[in-house]
Amino acid sequence: MQLAKFAQYYDLTEEAREFVVKFDFNQVAATLENIPESLQEDFIRQQLAKLRKPLDEQQILQCARELKSNRLLLAGYNFLCYYWWQHPAALLYNYKLPLFENTPDGADHAGVYYLLAALAGFPAIEKSYARLQLPPSYALDAMQYTSGAVFEYAAGHDGKLGINNTKLHWYRFYVDGVLFRIGRFEYMLQDPLPYLPAAFKRNSDGKVIALCRHGWHLRKDGLRLFTDETPNQACKTTILHNDGASITGTPIDPAGYAEVDRTLTLDLQQYTPLWNCWDLVPGLHIPGGGGMTPEAAADSLQKALEFFPRYFGRKVAAVSCYSWIFNNDFEKLLPESNLADFMRQVYLFPFPSVGVEGLAFVFGKNKADWENFPEDNSLRRAFHQLHEQNWRLKAGGMFITPEAIKNYGQNLYRRDYQSFAKL
């Protein structure tokens, strides 16, 4: 396959052209027109059988035939599979890969072509997990991410089958052996990330308090500035000062707001950090699909506490996440929902937001289209309510410690926060 012809067909920018060359296009060019095993009907059926929610097998097989009959579409498919499932140093972000929707022949079924590429990665997930000596059930559980990706694609494409091209990078985390589905949630193997606040446990009773990190730009409502706001619009820019004996900063209410008018000093003889930079603080991800009941959430978190020591020899200091899911406005609008219950069990903290958080996951589109967005479930109606009240969409962050996981359902952080009111 000639690079010039490939680049023209996929309408590659000069930057994208340089990217595919950097990631071995010329080295694999001679193989890109070969029909791989992953497009054979038996292989596809075997992978589809691993999914617990059935997909339209006939449509997927037909799209596989389309790829096999068009050498340029086939070349793009093969390069994607090479990049995501074989290249040892694939970039998981800021990549510039060929897109089927940019071709004269592939736009109509682009989503299914990406779905076929995802199915091609299933054996790589199984091999990776086997090397980690994980039971086969974990690989099968990881593959169920596909159902949520298909649901999201359908929401933004008038019910069509497929997945977005941006979903393929997520499967690579499984292949790299750093992401695991444990019950309802997924967990990323990672050290504490810099978005986390400074969090401490009181030695006398184990109660937890979080302070804003140094340099957070806060609004009057205790949220962090949106990304289109400038630092001079901040009500407060936080200072976190550690003099060796104590640490002073702006406290965070576990409901997700910084107390902008308050400063708190903690005696480091009486308080211990919840984690060190070398500790394991897995990143939590909530795959699409519903069913996030309190029982399912508690079960997943408890099993995660057992999983990492058993298979990686590492104790969990806390579990963390930032997501549109933790927009604390949803707790006001949907107080009886599973989502609101989950927020009450974790320690929420403010997170910088763009203002479109959640649209792609709930409606399948990043660009607001309120007149055409459906209102067919409570969450979608809540999004419409936020829009009608001119409340900007936002993300939030959270963490939860083993102690709160063991006491799941008791609103531990919010209950205990009252004890810090007089400090």
Structure at a glance:
The chain is α+β, with helices and mostly antiparallel strands and 423 residues long. It contains 18 helices and 16 strands.
Question: Can you describe this structure?
Answer:
A hairpin with a 3-residue loop joins strand 7 and strand 8 (246-249). Strands 10-9-4-3-12 form a 5-stranded antiparallel beta sheet. Strands 1-2-13 form a 3-stranded antiparallel beta sheet. Strands 7-8-11 form a 3-stranded antiparallel beta sheet, with no helix packed on it. The chain has 2 domains: 3-177, no CATH class; 179-423, 3-Layer(aba) Sandwich (Aminopeptidase), CATH 3.40.630. With 423 residues, it is of the alpha+beta class. The mean pLDDT is 95. Helix content is 39%, strand content 13%. The chain has 18 helices and 16 strands.
Descriptive keywords:
Aminopeptidase; 423 residues; 5-stranded antiparallel sheet; 3-stranded antiparallel sheet; single chain; alpha+beta; 2 domains
Helices and strands in order:
Layout: H1 3-9, H2 14-22, H3 25-28, H4 41-48, H5 57-69, H6 71-85, H7 110-120, H8 122-131, H9 136-143, H10 145-156, H11 168-175, E1 179-182, E2 185-188, E3 198-202, E4 208-211, E5 217-218, E6 236-237, E7 241-242, E8 246-249, E9 251-253, E10 257-258, E11 264-267, E12 271-273, E13 283-285, H12 294-312, E14 319-323, H13 329-333, H14 338-345, E15 347-350, H15 359-363, H16 378-388, E16 396-400, H17 402-406, H18 412-417
Antiparallel strand pairs: 1-2, 2-13, 3-4, 3-12, 4-9, 5-6, 7-8, 8-11, 9-10, 14-16, 15-16
Helix pairs in contact: 4-5, 5-6, 5-7, 6-7, 8-9, 8-11
